[in-house]
Amino acid sequence: MKKHYKFSIWYFIIGIWGVLLLQNYLASSFAVKTIPYSQFISYLEQGKIAQVAISTNQVQGRLKSETTGGKHQYFKTIRVDPEISRLLDKYHVQYSGTVESTLIRDLLSWILPVFIFLGVWFFLMKKMMPQQPGFMAFGKNKAKIYKQEDINITFNDVAGVDEAKVELEEIIEFLKTPEKYTAFGGQMPKGLLLVGPPGTGKTMLAKAVAGESNVPFFGISGSEFVEMFVGLGAARVRDLFEEAKKNSPCIIFIDELDALGKARGVGGVGGHDEREQTLNQLLVEMDGFDSNIGVILMAATNRPEVLDPALLRPGRFDRQVLVDRPDKEGRKKILEVHLRKITRVGELDLDRLAAMTAGMVGADLANLVNEATLLAVRSNRKTVEMAQFEEAVERIVAGLEKKNRVINPKERNVVAYHELGHALVAMSLPGTDPVQKITIIPRGIAALGYTMQLPTEDRFLMNQSELLNKIASLLGGRAAELTVFNEVSTGAHNDLAKATDIARSMIIEYGMSDKLGQVYLKGEPTAQFLQPGLRTAAEYSEETARIIDEEVRKIIDKQYEVALNILKNKQSLLKKAAEILLQKEKITGAELEEIIAGEQQS
Ligand code: ADP
Ligand code: ZN
Description:
The chain has helices at residues 2-29, 37-46, 84-90, 103-128, 162-176, 178-182, 202-213, 222-226, 232-246, 257-261, 273-288, 328-339, 350-356, 362-378, 386-402, 409-428, 464-485, 493-508, 542-568, 571-584, 589-601, and strands at 32-34, 49-54, 58-63, 74-78, 94-96, 146-148, 191-195, 217-221, 250-255, 295-301, 319-322, 435-439, 450-453, 586-588. With 602 residues, it is α/β, with parallel strands linked by helices. The chain folds into 4 domains: 31-100, Signal recognition particle alu RNA binding heterodimer, srp9/1, CATH 3.30.720.210; 144-322, 3-Layer(aba) Sandwich (Rossmann fold), CATH 3.40.50.300; 328-398, Orthogonal Bundle (Helicase, Ruva Protein, domain 3); 409-601, Up-down Bundle (Methane Monooxygenase Hydroxylase, Chain G, domain 1), CATH 1.20.58.760. Strands 6-8-9-10-7-11 form a 6-stranded mixed sheet, sandwiched between helices. It has a 5-stranded mixed sheet with strand order 1-4-3-2-5, with helices on one face. A 3-stranded antiparallel sheet has the order 13-12-14. A hairpin with a 3-residue loop joins strand 2 (49-54) and strand 3. The longest helix is centred in the N-terminal third of the chain and has 28 residues, at 2-29. The radius of gyration is 39 Å and the shape is elongated. The protein starts with a helix and ends with a helix. The protein binds adenosine-5'-diphosphate and zinc ion. The site of adenosine-5'-diphosphate (ADP) has 17 residues, from helix 7, helix 12 and helix 14. Zinc ion binds at residues 418, 422, 477, 492, 495.
């Protein structure tokens, strides 16, 4: 909003300048020069005067254009001689008795340029911001909410997101036969949040839900709400819901929910009122409708953590569906979907293609198929072959590597051993959470892979040995790197931070250090409104601080030893598991157990 404002100020200044210039030009061409009476007489004697108008105390007139070089030159003078008419008769000058008003001329020279300027202004505004609704687009408010009646996207077009599909099945069922659900008096979820990185098919999934259940689809992007002038965003939300209710059953889809739903009160001073108003209106609308009328609200975001908590409360977007990056099998299926549209395809090794495209999402794969086809066309081939795909992969990967989204084979290797290190150490120690899955599919910038451990039950208490084991498994990643490659990487910094945190808490919070004893040494949080997370300095001596650091170090060192010892004895298992992980990119805890069992037999 601020930006637009600045913009117009500049145009305004330039505009004013233009008006002045034009006015100056017009005024000079209509200029009335005041001349002394004697000069008037001498003009008269020289026969230069074409025409005059006389009033009681003024004479105004025009000089003959032949004498001024073609220009219209006007003059006026104070009337001195009451007998002027006789004088004019003598020189055969036309005269009249009224004074020609200068008002018209003044108006003309001022108003004309203003009109011209306004015209140019509007023209430019229209040209420059075709898609940014300024005040001129006021009435066209609804144009951007696009309604699609016949969506021919189905679940078959979205591949590799089976988990998300399962979650959405129920919604489709409901939209098809709402009575079945309402008869039970049950409540359908109102809002469904699709969470996942860009290009994984969230929009497609939402459309597929509409397509499968044959209901209209209303789509709008969160950023479009916010770009508008004050008050319009909220009005549009109202319109959107009104329209949807009229068309129920239907689906409302808000893309980029984070653009509109960022937590209120963050992100600087002022300038966000519009977003807040829009967000508030959305919350009001969500609370105001009964999902059983058949309107399902879906939204997509890749940054759920920045959303205003109010949006995630029960009765709003209380259901989240994860749309993750596809694994190898998923990528293969996505490639198949996009290859269906290509009519001339040669022999392709889809397994190999899927393996080559680690880290890519659906949008990247769609792009890949397109790119390969273009390459084939460009080189005048009859069919698209593997060679074109390989070339296209290289091009796309080069682009993605810049964005840190694809990791090279050497790094993948390190990541695989690292993650398995976590998993194997955790499995070897009692009291650690069971390993659910291990993946080397990169997620975001920080994590290149991860090992998911889930507790089997809710835990409120942990004993000392469990905490130590947890630290050991956190250090298992780095330990694996060291035992296999004789070298460590930067990939463990997050693990180290977590391990150190636990070790520190053991000492200063839980009284688990023999040296320091059963004391609580942690500072208390200060009042929340001052600055969340800020703590008062704990009150202990420098000597104590030194001991704390020493004790933390001791715990970490000891557990690192533990992890190293476990992994030293498991080198061949580590190698075997890593091969499988590198090939499949994702293995479950159960699969890892199988690998372990197989290894023990041989
Ligand atoms: P998002 O909304 O998650 O950013 P989109 O749904 O807009 O992603 O996907 C963009 C394009 O990428 C789609 O039009 C489709 O061609 C392709 N695509 C993305 N994910 C998939 C998928 N899972 N299966 C098939 N195609 C996909
Ligand atoms: Zn790790």
